[in-house]
Write a structure and sequence with these properties.
- The chain is mainly β and 156 residues long.
- It contains one helix and ten strands, in the order ββββββαββββ.
- A hairpin with a 2-residue loop joins strand 9 and strand 10.
Length: 156
């Protein structure tokens, strides 16, 4: 609880008795107004009156209201990212938003180098020659029957 003092200056002519310890003149009335600043949950719009307040994304939440937009897992004590102003847990970020390799179907980590061919993503180690299995990243290659070959092993 926070006490906020309000001091009003008044003169004897206002109808108050002179209660000044000095006999006459100006006296002051001190009123204490109490108020509690109660945060509102950004998700459910209810007041957060007890327990933990989660502050994230410049908003306040009940712990049970700050959840992953995809899987609904509580995010109060875990890493998350924001996608379209919605919190997303890291597991859902990988599952729904990170590119997957067309060949091995694994998620491509943001720290990994990868390439895109015909709007499909590949790990550099997965984009390989059909014959020798060497990576074709940064190299010229030939397509034959929808298969990729390095120039050394391209079918004639």
């Amino acid at each position: 609880m926070v006490l906020a003092p309000f001091i009003f200056k008044t003169e004897n002519s206002c109808g108050f008795s002179n209660v000044s310890p000095h006999g006459k003149g100006t006296f002051y009335l001190l009123f204490l107004s109490s108020f509690i600043s109660v945060p509102e949950c950004a998700k459910c719009k209810k007041d957060i009156t007890s327990g933990t307040v989660v502050t994230a994304m410049e908003k306040k939440f009940h712990p049970g209201c700050f959840i992953c937009d995809k899987c609904k897992k509580e995010l109060a004590k875990v890493s998350f990212v924001v996608n379209d102003d919605k919190p997303i847990c890291m597991d859902c970020q990988k599952k729904h938003f990170m590119p997957k390799c067309q060949k091995c179907n694994d998620t491509i980590d943001p720290s990994e180098k990868y390439l895109t061919y015909e709007n499909k993503c590949y790990h550099t180690k997965c984009f390989t020659c059909e014959h020798c299995k060497e990576s074709l990243a940064g190299k010229q290659f030939v397509i034959k029957d929808n298969k990729k070959f390095c120039t050394d092993h391209a079918p004639k």
